[in-house]
Design brief:
Number of strands: 2
Structural class: mainly alpha
Strand order of the largest sheet: 1-2
Distance between the termini: 58 Å
Number of domains: 2
Largest sheet: 2 strands, antiparallel
Number of helices: 5
Strand content: under 5%
Helix content: 55-70%
Order of helices and strands: HHHEEHH
Radius of gyration: 28 Å
């Protein structure tokens, strides 16, 4: 069982930017010293861009994302560098599922009642079809 949250194009842009941030951060670990400076500047600019994009999202869209944290002031957000680099194979989108508990006997009885209604409806439809087909043209 799960609940789906409506998201818009801004949400997709943030997810793409966070994915890019994650890949640049992964490249940073194995890069040469001269390349690390360039990647560090790229990470800074991506972080600022993501912070601006997070501020534009609605509350529901923010709740549907992982790897971000509240910034210094109210309404300011920033990317959580430690979380996004610690979980390289976990989705940036939040996925929360829970099991629906139900009584097996009640579920079985409901399914049998549905089957009985369907069979009665099929019989009625068959009777109507045969009556239609047995009609004669009086033209």
């Amino acid at each position: 069982m799960y609940e789906q949250i409506e998201t818009g194009p801004l949400y997709d842009n943030v997810v793409r930017s966070m994915s890019t941030y994650r890949s640049v951060a992964a490249r940073m670990q194995s890069a040469k010293a001269s390349t690390q400076g360039k990647l560090d500047r790229r990470l800074e600019s991506l972080g600022e861009k993501i912070a601006e994009q997070l501020a534009e999202l609605s509350g529901g869209e923010l709740e549907a994302l992982e790897c971000w944290k509240h910034g210094v002031g109210q309404g300011h957000y920033e990317i959580d560098h430690d979380a996004i680099t610690a979980k390289p194979y976990v989705s940036i989108r939040k996925i929360a599922r829970w099991d629906e508990e139900y009584d097996v006997a009640e579920r079985k009885a409901a399914m049998q009642a549905t089957d009985e209604r369907d069979s009665k409806r099929k019989e009625a439809d068959a009777a109507k079809l045969s009556a239609f087909l047995s009609m004669r043209d009086d033209f």
